[in-house]
Design brief:
The protein is an alpha/beta fold. The protein is built from 14 helices and 25 strands. The chain is 25% helix and 23% strand. The strands form seven sheets. Strands 1, 2, 11, 12, 13, 14 and 25 form a seven-stranded mixed beta sheet that branches. Strand 9 and strand 10 form a beta hairpin. The chain is globular, with a radius of gyration of 23 Å. The N terminus is likely disordered.
Length: 544
């Protein structure tokens, strides 16, 4: 094995800790690690550091997701699981990361998810350890109890705008025996109710505003470099000693006296490791990247939720479709500007259900998300129909199909090759039909059934398992929850150890959703915050 040594130039800026990526995890790391005034922290982000009106307004989600300045889009390989087409995976590119452009859902996951992590070899990452992390950073609108937290930096709110179609959806689920929940984040996750959101006083409460408050930013030992692209990690042997980046159009080298912490996400953390010489030896040799550590599992074990969208027309003018155009849109914008209330002060969707797709299961395996609007036909369309209707999308919570992230070049500016391998596992293919049939069964319950006139997508002609699977492949899409590409495990089963140190290196950790050993039964933002919170405890322990 070659062990390149990258000499740091004299006079290079130096910090004790360099954090690469200011998304959900990076903001938590900067918040907590800078509490020690003797520790000098640099937080680096490729995108801008500002919260424009479109970011602050919760309903700005629909525009933000296509914003080329604050979102970087990665193309996947065309595969059978995506209908033979490439897909575009958006990731937040701003201080706040994807938490600044997401639908603002706050869902923790099931305790069994984290206990499963430990059972798979991730020692110390069970529910007993992570449950208190969630509670520590929460400021829950419903107040603290044995499960929820209050007084922490992250505001958690209930949905502010009840709607008759959403109420009908919840009541239909209850008719199937699904418990109604005011708080969908209890350990007994099975249930249906209005979504829980990261919104405070009518504005998006992303990781930036929550963890990098003005008081935190004012700490003299914390430096934030936005609009700075990290190109590679620098090593002396196998020890990470700094990073090379481009800032304000100029190359810059920064020294890390103690540690480099990668928090760039499940796509960019493994990619950056690989272009820096830490990854599968065969892949790195192919692209003439000097090998630092042969790490076969860097970039492996990629998992992503794949949604199936189901839509219905309704017989009453109750949906939100007219509210997004014409004078009604102006009215809603005016209400938001004056009072920070109304339609524009809510997240992307309105209700959520965690359900068992068949009775023999001991916990939910499917998430359903509902909104009282109808979009035009097409793959993941976000253009509203002129008529009235509702949308329900569903996805398997714990997919078994695994993909990969691989560099295509030694050039860090060349995007990686992403192979999702959707629906390659038999269990995932079987789940497709169960998801659609469960949705249809729920919609057939009163009072929701009384509103329905027709199913427009996929339509009543789609009935057999194979037809449903074909629809899922062609018209499904990513939920923007990639995980697992630097998973916790032994050197034989993971890329990082139980203290999130990259196997075979010193002074280098990965701290983001890439370390998840498996997918969580939820959206990934909350669990990413919990992992970062726990990581700070480990870093502080190791520093003593």
């Amino acid at each position: 094995m070659s062990t390149p040594s990258n000499t740091l130039p004299a006079g290079a800026p130096d910090f004790d800790v360099v954090i690469v990526g200011a998304g959900s995890a990076g903001c938590v790391l900067a918040h907590r690690l800078s509490e020690d005034p003797t520790r000098r922290i640099l937080l680096i982000e490729a995108g801008p550091d500002r919260r424009d009106f479109i970011v602050r307004m919760p309903k700005g989600f629909g525009k933000l997701i296509f914003d080329t300045e604050r979102v970087r889009r990665f193309e996947t390989e065309p595969e059978e699981g995506s209908g033979g087409e490439a897909e575009s995976w958006p990731r937040g590119r701003m201080v706040g990361g994807s938490s600044g452009v997401n639908g603002q859902f706050y869902t923790r996951g099931q305790p069994e998810d984290f206990d499963g992590w430990e059972a798979s070899g991730a020692r110390g990452w069970n529910w007993q350890t992570l449950g208190p992390c969630f509670k520590a950073f929460e400021d829950h609108e419903l107040g603290a109890d044995e499960v929820r937290g209050a007084g922490g930096p992250l505001h958690v709110s209930t949905h502010p705008n009840p709607h008759p179609l959403v109420d009908a959806f919840i009541d239909a689920g209850a008719a199937l025996g699904v418990p109604k929940r005011t708080d969908i984040n209890r350990p007994e996750q099975e249930g249906i109710g209005y979504v829980t959101l990261n919104i405070k006083n009518g504005e998006r409460a992303d990781a930036s505003v929550s963890f990098l408050t003005p008081q935190v930013r004012a700490r003299p030992n914390l430096t934030i470099w936005a609009d700075t692209f990290v190109e590679r990690i620098l090593f002396d042997g196998q020890k990470a000693v700094g990073v090379e980046c481009t800032r304000k159009g100029k190359k810059q080298v920064v020294a890390a006296r103690s540690e480099v912490l990668l928090a760039a996400g499940a796509i960019q953390s493994p990619w950056l490791l690989q272009v820096s010489g830490v990854g599968p030896a065969e892949l790195l040799n192919k692209h003439q990247v000097p090998l630092v550590v042969d790490a076969p599992l860097v970039g492996a074990q990629l998992r992503e939720h794949r949604m199936m969208v189901v839509q219905y027309r309704i017989n009453k003018p109750l949906s939100l479709n007219p509210e997004f155009s014409g004078w009604r849109l102006l009215k809603n914008m005016g209400q938001y500007l004056l009072k920070k209330r109304g339609l524009m002060a809510t997240g992307s969707h309105d209700a959520v259900a965690f359900v068992r797709s068949y009775e023999a299961l001991d916990r939910p395996d499917v998430e359903l998300v509902m909104a009282p609007f109808l979009v035009k036909p097409g793959k993941l369309s976000m253009d509203f129909e002129s008529g009235h209707g509702l949308q329900i999308f569903g996805y398997q919570l714990r997919p078994e199909s695994v993909g990969s992230i691989e560099i295509c070049s030694a050039d860090p500016n060349i995007p990686p090759r992403i192979r999702p391998n959707y629906l390659t596992a038999a269990a995932d293919r079987a789940a497709s039909a169960r998801i659609l049939r469960y949705i249809r069964k729920l919609v057939a319950q009163q009072p929701l059934a009384g509103f329905i006139t027709e199913e427009t997508a996929p339509g009543p002609e789609v009935q057999s398992d194979e037809q449903i699977l074909d629809y899922h492949r062609k018209f499904g899409g990513p939920v923007m929850h990639p995980v697992g590409t630097c998973r916790i495990g032994t050197a034989e089963s993971g890329a990082v150890d139980e203290r999130l140190r990259v196997h075979g290196t010193q002074g280098l950790r990965v701290i983001d959703a890439s370390v998840f050993p498996t997918q969580v039964s939820a959206h990934t933002h909350a669990a990413t915050l919990a992992v970062a919170w726990r990581a700070c405890d480990l870093i502080n322990e190791d520093a003593t």
